[in-house]
TrEMBL record:
Annotated HTH myb-type domain residues: 9-61, 62-116
Residue ranges occupied by any Myb-like domain in the UniProt entry: 9-61, 62-112
Compositional bias (Low complexity): 168-187
Protein name: Uncharacterized protein
Domain of life: Eukaryota
GO cellular component: nucleus
Protein's cellular compartments: Nucleus
Keywords noted in UniProt: DNA-binding, Nucleus, Repeat, Repressor, Transcription, Transcription regulation
SUPFAM superfamilies: Homeodomain-like (SSF46689)
Keyword Hydrolase: no
Stored SMART domains: SANT
CDD domains in UniProt: SANT (cd00167)
GO molecular function: DNA-binding transcription factor activity; transcription cis-regulatory region binding
DNA sequence: AATACTGCCAACCGCGGGGCA
DNA sequence: ATGCCCCGCGGTTGGCAGTAT
């Protein structure tokens, strides 16, 4: 087939963005909004490919980005979500307003992995280090799929289930610096599951039963964030306290014996 | 002071999926 | 039904800054 290159590479700049380029991009998006990234560079007078423009905007120039260090609370949210979703950085980022997938990915590889290792937890499997058992792909995938069976957010659930089915605890980046310095004792996946929680210090039981202090019966759709112990206005980006409002991320637990 | 090493992060690359003709 | 186009994602790389020797 052969996909054509995304841009005329010979006529595009690469590498770090200059202040002028940033200003042009911001000015254009302010005036026209985010639109077709492929045609944006030309329209904005930038010698960049559309992908580069999108990345620069998404990861650096967007006005709603939260700059600065991650809080401990954000750390814990990332860890919890990673235990369920694996390296689905965009999904994780979706739960952390103002943070980008790239930022979270970098932060994971440089900080959180080390943090987990210091706690004696394998950052890949979220199991105690030294444990002979690794998470069983099938079991984990099925469990995640069940937990994330979506009603109004099929993409999220499907992506999570797909990911975990394909690679339940995706290997960390093999070449990045964080991995270079920390990814030594991790297992390569596979092996039998004992049913033991992947991360014993985290309550990841999202599958059944009402959430804490919930007045919703188990069969009701349940917000993933809510099940993770988040609340709207906190790190949770949805509006779990406003039923019926848009932007919900609801997940309905499967009935007993139900499979996806 | 110079050099080597390490950590961090912005940016790039290639692929997969969805939409559309 | 098929193929193309575009977007978005995850993995990876490169360069800069800080630290150690």
């Amino acid at each position: 087939m052969g996909r054509s290159p995304c841009c005329e590479k010979a006529h595009t700049n690469k590498g770090a963005w200059t202040k002028e380029e940033d200003e042009r991009l911001v000015a254009y998006i302010r005036a026209h909004g985010e639109g077709c990234w492929r045609s944006l560079p030309k329209a904005a007078g930038l010698l960049r490919c559309g992908k580069s423009c999108r990345l620069r905007w998404m990861n650096y120039l967007r006005p709603d980005l939260k700059r600065g260090n991650f809080t401990d609370e954000e750390d814990e949210i990332i860890i919890r979500l990673h235990a369920i979703l694996g390296n689905k950085w965009s999904l994780i980022a979706g739960q952390l307003p103002g943070r980008t997938d790239n930022e979270i990915k970098n932060y994971w590889n440089t900080h959180i992995k080390r943090k987990l290792l210091a706690r004696g937890i394998d950052p890949q499997t979220h199991r105690p280090l030294g444990s002979a058992e690794a998470a069983a792909p099938g079991v984990v995938a099925h469990r995640a799929a069940a937990l994330l069976h979506a009603t109004t957010a099929p993409a999220l659930a499907a992506a999570a289930a797909r990911t975990l089915a394909a690679k339940p605890t995706p290997a960390a980046s093999s070449s990045d610096d964080g991995a270079r310095s920390t990814s030594t004792s991790t297992s390569s996946g596979g092996g039998a599951s004992t049913g033991e929680p992947r991360c014993p210090d985290l309550n990841l039981d999202l599958s059944v039963g009402p959430p804490p202090a919930a007045d919703t019966p188990p069969s009701q759709p349940v917000c993933l964030c809510y099940r993770l112990g988040l609340r709207a206005g906190e790190a949770c980006g949805c509006q779990a306290d406003k039923p019926g409002a848009g932007g919900f991320r609801y997940f309905r637990p499967l009935e007993q014996g139900q499979y996806i």
